[in-house]
Amino acid sequence: MKMIANRLLELVLFLLVLSFISFAFMKLAPGDPVRYMLNIDDVAVSEERIEELREELGFNEPIIVQYGLWLVRFFQFDLGISYMTQQPVTQELAEKLPATLILTFCSVVIMTLISVPVGSLSALYKNKMIDQVSRLFALIGASVPSFWLGLLLIQWFSVKLGWLPSMGSDSILHLILPSVTLGVAMAAVYVRLLRSSLLESLNQDFVISAKARGLSSFRIFWFHALRHSMVPVITIFGVSLGSLLGGTVIIEVLFSYPGIGKLVVDAIVRRDYPVIQGYILFMGLFVAVINILVDLSYRYLDPEIRLKEGGST
Question: Where does this polypeptide localize (predicted)?
Answer without folding.
Answer: Cell membrane
